[in-house]
Amino acid sequence: MGIKEEIREFGKSIGIDLIGFTTAQPFDITQKVLEDSINNGFGLPHLNRILLQRCTPRKRMPQARSIISVAMSYNISPEHFPSRPDAPFLGFISKHAVGMNYQRVLREKLFQVARFINKFTPVKYRIFAGGSSMVDRAIAQRAGIGWSGANTCLYTIDYGSWVFLGNMLIDLEIEPDRPIENQCKECYRCVTACPTGALVKPNVIDPYRCLSYITQMEGYISEEFRISMGKKIFGCDTCQQVCPQNRQAIPSDHPEFMPLIDPSVDLISLLRMDKEEFGESFEKTVIGLGNRDIILRNAVIALGNYRDNRAANVLKEVLHQHVSPVVRDHAIWALSQISRFD
Ligand code: SF4
Ligand code: SF4
To answer: How many angstroms separate the first and last alpha carbons of the chain?
Structure first.
């Protein structure tokens, strides 16, 4: 068995679903696409600033010769989810956010792969898991892990788009894999179903309209998007849920991604949690990484979207007691939604 097969076998034995290999050559086409996106106003400033580094692996590690791209499915079967809270007002969390912080899990898996390779030959490497330091999806595509759907998600044959991606730059020459054929059915259900029109056309996303970005950003949310959020309080799975390519996705049973929280959250309890209770509930998930006020703001919006007078009391508590002006301001909006439809 060559080193590539050894790495693949080892990866499988530690729970990595897919491993692909590509060169450390720059991602010129991706860079051009992203430049066009920036010129059309769709770039995010913190990513625009590092565009060249993201697309040029050797800017991250000058001696890199190959990239090992890995994917792990988080398509956990519904029977593994905790029971849905018996509460009148539920907010919904994206499927990727209910298990253990995937960045930590993927980093650890990639370190194990690096230690394994080091047994054969001493190597230098650099690991990237989560975040946006590199163009993960373009790397996975070139490494033969999957293709890009019209909703810009990376799709794999077996696991659909429900995968986390990570990469290792390595100073070892490994024969690259071939990209696989794009199997997007071009049905554009994703484009039609998007609640905000963020998919401005197939393969082009305006992140400023995408609820996945909006529900994780800090600050004020425009009224248009408050309504489109509906009951979503963290992330958005709509364009993936409607995609026929995801219907046959193999369920995942990775213990690391077993749900630590239910994707349906009792909004009233959430808003009444103190900092400690919030930390205990979410600290191991990606939600715990962010600012608590972001999810409280989103919970307030979701309650407003219920337009039900029974939610008014907790919103008034937030309005009078919460320290964040952003959360309080959204509580005023939520109360106005309730009174408008009462
Ligand atoms: S919904 Fe249709 S167009 Fe969109 S990614 Fe899936 S297969 Fe492609
Ligand atoms: S994640 Fe949601 S808002 Fe973003 S493109 Fe997909 S459907 Fe639209």
So the answer is: 69
Whole-angstrom distance, CA of residue 203 vs CA of residue 155: 13
Q: CB under 8 Å to 83, separation ≥6 — which residues?
A: 262
CA 156 to chain centre: 16
Q: How far apart are CA 164 and CA 78, in angstroms?
A: 19
Ranges 8-12, 42-46, 93-97: which has the least confidence: 42-46
Model confidence pTM above 0.90 = yes
Query: pLDDT tens digits, residue range 146-163?
Result: 999 999 999 999 999 999
191 pocket-lining for ligand 2 (C-beta < 6 Å): no
Looking at all shown ligands, the one closest to residue 209's CA atom is 2
For the chain, domain boundaries: 3-78+97-170
> Distance from the CA of 37 to the center of ligand 2, in angstroms?
17
Note the ligand closest to the C-alpha atom of 148: 1
In the reported structure, the alpha carbon of residue 85 is separated from the centroid of ligand 2 by a whole-number distance in angstroms of: 26
